[in-house]
Specification:
Layout: H1 12-24, H2 34-44, H3 49-62, H4 66-70, H5 74-80, H6 87-105, H7 118-126, H8 133-142, H9 157-162, H10 175-181, H11 189-205, H12 238-249
Length: 250
C-alpha cells in the first residue's frame, strides 16, 4: 500500500512494456485524424474489433460528411449499428457530439486539439456528451495527434491495480494520471498506446476477474499480487476513494 505522495519514475514500467509488446505485439493505430478516431471509438466501444470497424466503414459510406452525420436521425443510425452494444445510445450520442463540437469550436473538426496540452485536450474531449475520459485518452493516443495519453477502461485497469501501478483507492478517472506520473518522461504516444493495448490483452487472456492465470502471465515476476491475488475491483469502495483523495490533497 502506498504511503507517500512523492511520485517518481517506476523502473518496472519499461520492462512491463517490453514484455507486453513481446507477448501481444504493439498497438495497431490506423492514423485517423482526431475526429474520425473519436467517432470510431464511440461506435466501436464494447464491440469486437472487426464488428466495430465494419460498422464504422458502413457509417462513413452512408454519411460521407460530418455535416450529414450531424443531421442524421438517431433511428436511421441505429439501423446501421446492427451487432453493436448500446446501439440506441450510440445512435443518439453521435449527432449530439458533432453538434457540441460545432457549438464549442465553430467547426466540424478537432484540429484545435493540436494546439492544446494533452491534459487540456483530454478534458475538452471528455466534456462532450457521452464521451468518457477513457475514450478521450484513446483519441489522443491512437489518432494522428499521437499524444502520450493512457487509455484506461474497466478491463485493463485490473492488471494496473494488481501490478501496483496506481495507489489503492484510486478512482478509474484518476488512474491514467497516476500511471503516467511513473512513466519515463520521454515516452511517446505510441508507447502509451502499446501499454494500454498490452494490458487490455493481458486482462482478457490471463489477468481475469476472480482468480487470474498467474503462471501464464508474462509479468508474473513483476507483479506483487502474483499467486495470492483476491479479486481486485475496477471501482474501489467509497472509503478507499476518500482515503486516496485525502492523500492527494495533503
Amino acid at each position: 500500500m502506498q504511503t507517500s505522495l512523492t511520485f517518481t519514475q517506476n523502473a518496472d514500467l519499461p520492462v512491463i512494456l517490453d514484455r507486453l509488446e513481446r507477448s501481444y505485439g504493439r498497438a495497431t493505430r490506423h492514423k485517423r485524424d482526431a475526429m474520425r478516431q473519436l467517432i470510431f471509438m464511440v461506435v466501436a466501444q464494447g464491440a469486437a474489433p472487426s464488428v466495430g470497424l465494419a460498422v464504422f466503414d458502413r457509417l462513413q459510406a452512408v454519411y460521407p460528411s460530418w455535416a450529414r452525420l450531424r443531421d442524421a436521425e438517431p433511428r436511421d443510425l441505429e439501423a446501421l449499428f446492427i451487432g453493436l452494444p448500446d446501439r440506441e445510445k450510440k445512435a443518439r450520442a453521435i449527432p449530439e457530439i458533432l453538434k457540441a463540437i460545432e457549438a464549442e469550436h465553430g467547426e466540424l473538426d478537432l484540429d484545435h486539439l493540436a494546439e492544446m496540452s494533452t491534459d487540456a485536450a483530454r478534458i475538452w474531449l471528455a466534456a462532450l456528451p457521452g464521451v468518457s475520459l477513457s475514450v478521450a485518452s484513446a483519441v489522443l493516443a491512437f489518432s494522428t495527434l499521437e499524444r502520450p495519453s493512457l487509455a484506461v477502461d474497466r478491463e485493463n485497469v485490473r492488471p494496473m491495480r494488481r501490478l501496483g501501478l496506481c495507489p489503492q483507492g484510486t478512482p478509474l478517472s484518476a488512474v491514467p494520471r497516476e500511471v503516467m506520473e511513473g512513466a519515463p518522461a520521454d515516452w511517446s504516444g505510441a508507447q502509451m498506446a502499446s501499454l494500454s493495448h498490452g494490458l487490455g490483452r493481458l486482462a482478457a487472456t490471463v489477468c481475469q476477474r476472480g482468480k487470474p492465470a498467474c503462471q501464464r502471465c508474462p509479468l508474473m515476476t513483476l507483479c506483487p499480487s502474483s499467486g495470492h491475488v483476491a479479486e481486485v475491483l475496477a471501482f474501489p469502495s467509497a472509503e478507499a476513494r476518500q482515503a486516496w483523495a485525502a492523500k492527494r490533497s495533503a
